[in-house]
Amino acid sequence: MSDAETLFEKIIAREIPAEIVYETDTTLAFRDIQPQARVHVLVVPKKRYRNLAEFAAADPAGLADVVATAAKVAELEGISASGYRVVFNTDADAGQTVFHVHAHVLGGEQLGHFGRPG
């Protein structure tokens, strides 16, 4: 992993502004600047891991915190009853562009299917 700070580390440090939805001691949730649904919030652990596999192996409790924060975000955003999606993209072929593990919380409307586009 590069020693260079990621965009998310700069958001966590409040060096770059973001619309924060929820925060705990170990996680930060903020709105995606290119939303793919009416509700699109990113949940990041404050400690950097490159991807989901690295995170799960190194810090299972931290992964549980991210999932709990995703559920809290869904509740705060009013989408927990109607349904929501939590997505982790792992590495470039899956669409990961910032290599600091993060969960996408999506909802607030009927979501399409996964997989190849159109």
From TrEMBL:
SUPFAM superfamilies, alphabetized: HIT-like
Motif (Histidine triad motif): 100-104
Any one GO molecular-function label of the UniProt entry: catalytic activity
Superkingdom per UniProt: Bacteria
Residue positions of the active site: H102 (tele-amp-histidine intermediate)
HIT domain location: 7-116
Coiled coil: none
PROSITE patterns: HIT_2 (PS51084)
UniProt cross-references to InterPro entries, sorted A to Z: Histidine_triad_HIT, HIT-like, HIT-like_sf
Protein name (Swiss-Prot/TrEMBL): Histidine triad nucleotide-binding protein
Organism: Amycolatopsis albispora
